[in-house]
Amino acid sequence: MTSALPHASETISDRRYLIPFRSQLLPQIFTDVLVIGSGVAGLRAAMEASTRGEVIVLAKGALDRSNTALAQGGIAAVLAADDTREGHIDDTLVAGAGLCERATVETLVDEGARAIDFLLAQGMRFDREADGALSLTREGGHHRRRIVHSDGDATGTELARTLLAAAAALPAIRMFEQCFALDLLTAGQGDGGDERVLGAITHHPKYGLQIIWARAVVLATGGVGQLWRESTNSRIATGDGVAMAWRAGAKIVDMEFAQFHPTALYIAGAPRSLISEAVRGEGAKLVDRSGRRFMESLHPLGELAPRDIVSRGIIDHLARVQDSCVFLDAKQMGSTGFRARFPGLAQMLAGYDIDPGKDLIPVTPAAHYTIGGVATDLDGRTSIAGLFAAGEVAWNGLHGANRLASNSLLEGLVFGRRAGAAAASEPTARSPARLVSDIRPSLRAELDLADSRSSLTSAMWRNVGIVRSGAGLEGALDMIEFWSRYSLDKIFDDLHGWELQNLLVAGSLVARAAAWREESRGTHTRTDFPTSSDRFLAHSVWSRHQAEPAVVALGEVGVLA
Ligand code: FAD
Ligand code: SIN
Question: Fewer CB within 10 Å, N or C, the chain?
């Protein structure tokens, strides 16, 4: 089935594509809904949209390479007899430090149990108690056990397996892997007024550049976690979706809020693999090299305080004791107990000769989750007609200034479904489009891509990390501006260049928003503004059409989209 979609023709869109192209010369593919991303949000959106039309799903690497597949702890939902809707809502709002949109939180919680039922119906295997009931764990910020999980610490693997198998079984869905979306195709005057998204330009190593025309596009590209040197994220998390949406003129919200997970493995030369918060949920304690606990005095929930508090607690303690890592003490579980509850972690740690039943696990905070993103309403609609977003790339006010653990897989399920339904209902676009790049290569020298990228991630870690200051942020912005001058004026022909360009756009958005927010709140800590201020009890909304952010009060989420 193909839709009556526009072809390249008359109107010049005043915006910048990463590559110059004339659409007439490229192979063209047509679909009803194009979903960019094969994680939880993209697959859930695709499954919903496929009930009303044809869907194409893109992944820039293998289909199961995503943050979704890495998830450990599980999926939060109100399932236990002693749990309540209000309990989950309150825990989410408290973690969000005043910036959550209540209507979004209520929608998530109200649709949570239904999302788990959907997964059970698709055949997802969850861990169970001896009596057959779903096994529930606890993580930071939760006052109840309300997190379902699979194979101990491999919830993401099982979730990705389930959704990929379910999507593959639907004839209306086609999935293209190794297919990199470079840019969204837009028609309109380019001033943000009547812009409409019509599809995307993609690159596949075998088929080259292609155009995929669609009635609606759902961005589900995940977050920007690869912006920081220390990161738990998959390599795919390079902010492509935020950068594409920015170039297309969409509104971007609250990018200063990036969550740092307190416990990533700290071994020189090893990846910063996540050590799930569920390990602390099962009783492990944070200690320093001398075996001393330090979280008890900082928060009533101790090691299970919200993540921003634990991450800052670790950083402060390390500065006090002049060390480079703290330790998780999970010895109370014993070697067998740990292996039974966290088989994947036990196996990974054994690779470094660590037996958690006997040894301390060295840990440090690392970038983990992107809270800000492309502004959407409750149905994933962005500020540009025809463009929807869901999952970690999107902002809908759910997480406020700090995400509650294990709320994001649920977010992908609940808001992915809603975005898929809304996208499939989008009318056929009639806007004509003539699509030419206005990129003007300069004579400036080309910087080494790998070196620029590693300098960028180091600068983000140093100056735009867990603890920030006005001077540090200005320094980071100067560096990003410098690298941008030498990198955004180039036409690259592979993913390394395109990813660097996207990281620079995303890094600039994070640093600018962090410099603007002159207060400390949730995951955003400023040494020069150490307290929260009511003046900043609002969202910052950024668009490439305006030099300054719009400041939008809570509850006015509808006007963003
Ligand atoms: P992702 O799952 O990251 O998928 C992004 C998709 O977009 C990929 O398919 C990728 O190929 C594609 N893509 C990106 N750019 C392009 C492009 N340019 N062109 C084409 N395709 C593109 N959350 C929880 O709720 N519970 C947990 O237990 C949990 N554990 C976590 C553990 C780790 C180690 C990490 C990193 C995160 C964890 N999270 C957890 C967070 C959660 O996993 C993510 O927020 C969530 O999976 C994001 O889903 P998504 O669909 O938005 O994006
Ligand atoms: C974890 O298992 O600690 C990660 C959970 C999450 O990020 O929500």
Answer: N
